[in-house]
Structure formats: structure tokens, C-alpha cells
Design goal:
transferase, about 15% strand, alpha/beta, Glycosyltransferase, GT2 family, Spore Coat Polysaccharide Biosynthesis Protein SpsA, Chain A, DUF6492, transferase activity, 4 domains, 24 strands, 5-stranded mixed sheet, Nucleotide-diphossugar_trans
């Protein structure tokens, strides 16, 4: 009897538990040994008597996860820049190292490793009856990164056969694996002592996330070159996409008997569930009687645009040429936070902090925090860190972290890019990420569940029903930790470098600032950056160039846009949150803005905080957009006494009026007077104040209720005759702009 190692996580073990008796029956030539964290042993002890016959081995008794994780973090220091490394990135390599490490304690001639999400369809034999030789089972796929790493750890080694050794299992000769490990550890050109240290150090830091090592390909190639006659080759077929067509809970003996005609095994990969259009297809007895499993899968694969495809014989051998991580579209890729920044950028923020110490210690602290984050030099980073800590202890600092609340609903790719931008461009010490899925039905919720399992730095909440924008954000706020300012961020955004930093700087400019909004490429005129690019990444690059120190970066407005809305914790608490009468969406951000204003706080638009916004992803396919907008405008009027979409917004005519000021020769430093008759809450005058800080501005608004919500930097009067000077004495008079 040989040991059969099944390396698996506790959650996957519990998920696949109903099928493991079949694993035991079909791998009856060895002792089944599950390798993983402690949760597996607890599940075994509480399960059926049959499963209690299997063994358990604590993964850390073979190789400590924390040791591998620590080295991975050191390897990715520059890319992580203080961010937490997702455990899933380490885990992918760690499971492979465990399979190799076992050879050093194995007492048998052979041991076998078997992927925990794969179930054999029939009894498996791993030795040839005639020759007694063990089998190498082969499939068809190719990852160039595997062989690039192999060529570094084993100089001169490369791919030797057309097929792949990756077949979800492998029978390993203990002596050969020990020999392989010894050869890797003897490579003095690579830093490290242990084989796993050398493998990690052999991979360039920008390739780590591309799944750049395979224990199967490495061992198989090693044996093929050094012990070419030791194994007998055999073609192997496994149904890797089975989880898209069969459910773990409902697959039957009949299904397995039918599948066994063409498949040796099937896999239930994490995150795969039966789609609606795949139900009652592969598990339908009618189709099973008419077609073979191979015919069914070949027909289904005609619809695959990408991903793994099962190949028979010599057909389409390049079908599974995959560069990068296997599920590249599902990955969050960590990049250098200085991708679009100068390495000396940190000095600007340190100097700004020095200037602010005597004026605003909260802002000074934020500057030192950002300088520390952006600094690549370890000595300089430590120096700035000490300066920050001294200020924290001596400066009466009262700064909250931001709780970035991303409400997701369908569209996995857009959400992935949003999360990716946060992880890449925001200082991890400055925020906590909360992703609340609002009842997605397109697989986004499955991806989020998988991603949430793989990392520890975010709070992921999966909600079964769609609570709407207001309801979803309110529900998400229940998970905000103490000491955090809520930052509501649309899932169809990408956050460039320093955007969050400058929004926090604006929020802590003064105690009476209750909320800050960003500028974007998709907005009304007063919150719009007048730029247009062909690709989203160019907007991110633009943002890095825009989000820099400005003499006058904040513009007071009567409302801010909910696509990126950072609120002071106390101000948000006073409002009681979003009004759920505005579900599923539209004008709820106007309502919340007015609520914040009603408690005496000011609102700011931060012009050096550009955030890319795709726009209207959740509502683009709704047929009732106009009806919703009209209904919610009526709600606003009923609640606040005026229409915020008119009185608290800047019209196209007003924006054109502002543009004509420059055409008349007025410059930023010009001193001139403007009066706006029918100014509403003063948004146009607020924008003029931002562009022309020396201008003398006044507004006239007859509606008393509207005047209550006028911005504080402008004097607004009820009648023309209340103005501080005669109307005709103003240099510029604006009236009837709508």
C-alpha cells in the first residue's frame, strides 16, 4: 500500500465531502491521507464512519505556511508596498511544495498526490499489469512560465514531450523526488537553502502572480530526462469543467457510469456552479442514451471562447496554450504603486507635511503617512515613519481610516478592475475595503466568494437579494469598523494614485467639512474632468498626473456625486444613512448631500482627486430609468421643499457662462465682481470661486428654502435690493441661465 496525498483547504474539503467515498472506492490501492489545516480533521471526526478510515496530516507539520508566506512577502516587498499579501497567492505555491516536501519523510518507494477537487469516474490503476512500471498520465496544456522557472532552478532543463504532465494527480517515486529536491538545493546561483526558497527566489517578482511553477511539470520533466525508462506514458482524460454541468449534491451513480466511458476523472473546481442554461443537459438520461460524454463535451466546447478545453489525440494541440495565471480574467494583479509616479514623489509629501505641522496637524499626519507609503528607500521610509509616529504621539491627531464600501452587482470584470485599482494605488494603512454583493446572478458572487477566501485584507459580504443602491450601502455600513469614515465607491470605477489621499486631505481641511467628492470623466459639468481617452488605463495614468499638490484644490458645492463620496463619520451618523425610499437608485446622493448640509456641514469637490468612472453600469439596461428619475425628483421636492436637480446643480448654460469669463479676459488672479440672479444653492458661483479666488461674488435667490442650503463661501440674498451694492456696479451680471 502507498500513501495517497490529497492536499486541500478545509472549505474545499467540506464542499466535496459527499463525493469522497467514491474517491476512497476508486483509489483502493493506497492509504488516503488528507493534508491541510486543522478544520479538515474536525470535519473527518464528525462525518460518517466510512470517512473515518482516511488519514489526516496537518500541513504545518510538513512545512510551515507562515515560513513560505513570509518569504513570499519579502519577495514582493516592492510590489506590495505595505499591502497585505493575499494568502491565496502563497497558497497556490505552498500546496505544491507540500507535495514535494512529503518525499523527505515518506517511508515507501512511491507515494501519490491527487487534487482534492478531482473525483475518479472508475477504478484507477497506477502500475502497468505487464511490466509493473508506474504510469505517467498525460494531458494537453502548456504554460511557458512553468518551463522558464524550471530552466532557472534546473539549468538546461526544458520541455521534452508534446503533452503535459499536469493531470490532477501524479505517482511519485520517493527516491526521484528527493533527487530532484537535492539538485534544486545544490544550485548555488539562487538565494536560499531549502528547495522551496530557491523556487520562490528563482521567479521574477512580476511573475509570481502568474502561477509560474508546476510541481507536476518539473518532476515529470526531471524524470523524463534523467530516468527515461522508469515510467510508462498513458493518455488521461478528465472533465475539468464538470462543475459547470454537474452539482456535487445531485450527481448520481448513473452519471459517473456514463462519464466513465470517456473520462478517467472529473473535477469540481472552486467557483464553478451549474449555470441555468446548463441544467438538465449532461445529467439528462435522454442525452446520455443518445450521446457519449466526449461528444457532449466537444459540442459544449465549441461555445468556449477561452479557458481549458479537453483534447483527444492530436486534435487542436494548441488549445490550452496559456500564458500567465490559469484564470487570468479572474485574477487581481498587484502592480508597483509607483507605476505612474516618480520615485522622488514621496519627498513632496514629506515637505508638505512639514509645512502643515503648525497649521493642521491632521493633514500633516496624512502627508507623512503618504510619504512613507510612496517611499522605496528603506532608510528613508524608517525616518519618515518615526516622524509620523512622533506627530501621532505629540500632535493630538484625530484622523480616521476610510472604509471603502464597494457595492457590487453583476459585471465581474468591472468589479475586479475596481478592486485591483484600490489594492494597487491606495495606502493599505489608510483604509479598510468592504465589498458588499447586492444579489449578483452572473457569477460575480461566486468569484467574490472565491476571492474572499484567498485574502484577509477585505471584508466580503454576499447578499442573496438586491437591496438597491441605498439599501445595499446601508447594509454594507453595518460592517464598517470603528474609527472609519465611510467612502462610498461605485464598482465601475478605477482609483488612480493619490486620489484617496487627497480626498482625505480635503475632508480634514476643517472640522465643518462633512463630505468630499471626486472629479471624474463621466459627470455633470461642475464635477467633470474634460478629458477623453481610448482605454481605461490611460485614465488611470491621467489620474496619477492630475492627483498632485494644488494651491486651490477644493470647490465647495451644495451636493456631491455618489460615485465616489467620502463622508466624515460623525456627519454620516447624523444623517442616519441613505434614504431607502430612493431604491433602487437615482438622486439618493442628492438626498444624502442635503441631509449632511442640514446638519451644518460643508461639502467639497476635490479637483486633485480624479477617479475614472465607466458610468451607469447597473442601470444601463433598465427600461424605467426616466420613470425612476421623475419619481425620485418628486420625493426630493416632498422631503426638502425644492428640486435639487435644478436648484443644486449647474446647468449647461451656467457652465457656458463660466467659460465665457475667460474669453472676456479674466484670469485666475483677476479681481472682479459677479452677481447671479436666480442662483439656487450657488453652484455656479462656487465654481467661479474655485476658478477665480479673488472674484467678489454674490447671489440672489428668492426661494427661502433653497437659500438655507446655499454654499457658505458665497453671500446669497433674497432680493436684488438687498445686495451690498447697486446691481449696475457689478462687473458681470448673470440672469436667466436656467
Amino acid at each position: 500500500m502507498i500513501d495517497i496525498l490529497v492536499v486541500i483547504t478545509p472549505k474545499d474539503f467540506e464542499r466535496l465531502l459527499p463525493l469522497y467515498p467514491r474517491l476512497m472506492d476508486n483509489l483502493d490501492f493506497g492509504n488516503l491521507l488528507f493534508v491541510g489545516a486543522e478544520g479538515i480533521e474536525k470535519t473527518i471526526n464528525s462525518s460518517s464512519d466510512a470517512l473515518k478510515r482516511v488519514g489526516y496530516l496537518n500541513e504545518n507539520s510538513l512545512l510551515a505556511f507562515d515560513d513560505v508566506h513570509q518569504l513570499m512577502k519579502q519577495k514582493l516587498t516592492n510590489i506590495l508596498a505595505g499591502r497585505e499579501l493575499p494568502r491565496g497567492i502563497t497558497g497556490w505555491y505552498y500546496q505544491q511544495f507540500l507535495k514535494m516536501q512529503y518525499s523527505l519523510s515518506c517511508e515507501n518507494e512511491y507515494y501519490m498526490v491527487w487534487d482534492g477537487d478531482t473525483i475518479p469516474c472508475k477504478k484507477v490503476k497506477m502500475f502497468n499489469d505487464e511490466t509493473g512500471k508506474p504510469y505517467f498520465d498525460l494531458k494537453h496544456e502548456y504554460h511557458p512560465e512553468y518551463f522558464e522557472t524550471m530552466g532557472v532552478i534546473l539549468p538546461g532543463f526544458n520541455k521534452v514531450i508534446g503533452q503535459s504532465f499536469i493531470s490532477e494527480h501524479m505517482l511519485i517515486k520517493t527516491e526521484y523526488m528527493r533527487e530532484l529536491i537535492a539538485d534544486i538545493e545544490s544550485n548555488s546561483e539562487i538565494i536560499g537553502e531549502k528547495f522551496w526558497e530557491k523556487i520562490i527566489n528563482a521567479i521574477p517578482e512580476d511573475k509570481i502572480q502568474d502561477s509560474s511553477f508546476s510541481e507536476f511539470e518539473t518532476y515529470g520533466t526531471f524524470v523524463a530526462l534523467k530516468h527515461s525508462s522508469a515510467y510508462k506514458l498513458r493518455e488521461w482524460h478528465s472533465f475539468r469543467q464538470a462543475g459547470n454541468f454537474f452539482s456535487v449534491e445531485t450527481i448520481t451513480d448513473r452519471d459517473f457510469n456514463w462519464l466513465s466511458k470517456d473520462f478517467d476523472a472529473i473535477s469540481f473546481e472552486k467557483g464553478h456552479t451549474v449555470r441555468e442554461d446548463n441544467k438538465n443537459l449532461f445529467d439528462n438520461p435522454y442525452y446520455q442514451d443518445k450521446l457519449t460524454p466526449k461528444q457532449m463535451l466537444q459540442a459544449a466546447q465549441l461555445e468556449y471562447k477561452d479557458g481549458y478545453k479537453e483534447v483527444w489525440g492530436e486534435e487542436n494541440l494548441e488549445a490550452n496554450y496559456i500564458s500567465g495565471s490559469y484564470n487570468a480574467g479572474d485574477d487581481i494583479t498587484l502592480e508597483d504603486r509607483l507605476k505612474y509616479l516618480n520615485k522622488e514623489t514621496y519627498k513632496d509629501y514629506e515637505k508638505l507635511g512639514d509645512l502643515l505641522i503648525s497649521k493642521n496637524s491632521n493633514q500633516a499626519f496624512l502627508c507623512y503617512e503618504n510619504a512613507e507609503y510612496l517611499c522605496d528607500d528603506s532608510e528613508e521610509k524608517n525616518r519618515i515613519s518615526k516622524k509620523k509616529e512622533n506627530l501621532l504621539h505629540n500632535g493630538n491627531i484625530s484622523v480616521n481610516k476610510a472604509a471603502i464600501i464597494v457595492l457590487s452587482y453583476n459585471n465581474t470584470y468591472v468589479l475586479q478592475r475596481c478592486i485591483e485599482s484600490i489594492l494597487n494605488n491606495c495606502n493599505p494603512d489608510s483604509y479598510t475595503l468592504i465589498v458588499f454583493d447586492n444579489g449578483s446572478k452572473d457569477g460575480t458572487e461566486k468569484w467574490l466568494a472565491k476571492w474572499g477566501e484567498m485574502q484577509d485584507e477585505a471584508i466580503v459580504v454576499l447578499n442573496d437579494e438586491n437591496l438597491g443602491f441605498s439599501g445595499g450601502n446601508n447594509a454594507a455600513c453595518q460592517y464598517v469598523p470603528d474609527g472609519h469614515d465611510p467612502f462610498f465607491l461605485n464598482n465601475d470605477t478605477r482609483v488612480p494614485a493619490n486620489a484617496l489621499f487627497w480626498m482625505r486631505m480635503a475632508l480634514y481641511e476643517a472640522d465643518d467639512i462633512g463630505g468630499v467628492g471626486a472629479i471624474q470623466n463621466y459627470a455633470d459639468a461642475d464635477k467633470n474632468a474634460d478629458v477623453s481617452f481610448d482605454r481605461p488605463e490611460l485614465y488611470v495614468e491621467y489620474g496619477a498626473k492630475n492627483n498632485v499638490p494644488m494651491d486651490n484644490s477644493c470647490e465647495e458645492q451644495s451636493k456631491i456625486c455618489g460615485f465616489a463620496m467620502l463622508l466624515r463619520k460623525r456627519a454620516y451618523e447624523l444623517t442616519g444613512g441613505f434614504d431607502e425610499n430612493f431604491n433602487p437608485g437615482y438622486v439618493e446622493d442628492d438626498d444624502l448631500s442635503l441631509n449632511v448640509r442640514s446638519h451644518g456641514y460643508r461639502l467639497m469637490v476635490c479637483h486633485n482627486a480624479f477617479i475614472y468612472h465607466v458610468g451607469s453600469q447597473s442601470f444601463a439596461r433598465r427600461d424605467d430609468q426616466h420613470e425612476l428619475f421623475t419619481k425620485h425628483r418628486e420625493l426630493i421636492v416632498k422631503k426638502w421643499g425644492f428640486d435639487s436637480t435644478i436648484y443644486a446643480a449647474m446647468s449647461p448654460n451656467e457652465y457656458s457662462f463660466i467659460k465665457r469669463l475667460a474669453e472676456k479676459g479674466y484670469a485666475k488672479e483677476s479681481k472682479f465682481s459677479v452677481v447671479h440672479i436666480g442662483c439656487g444653492c450657488g453652484n455656479m458661483l462656487g465654481h467661479i470661486h474655485f476658478l477665480y479666488p479673488n472674484a467678489i461674488l454674490a447671489g440672489v435667490e428668492e426661494n427661502e428654502i433653497v437659500r438655507r442650503y446655499a454654499i457658505s463661501c458665497i453671500d446669497v440674498y433674497g432680493k436684488i435690493d438687498e445686495l451690498p451694492m447697486d446691481l449696475e456696479k457689478y462687473d458681470v451680471i448673470a440672469e436667466g441661465l436656467g
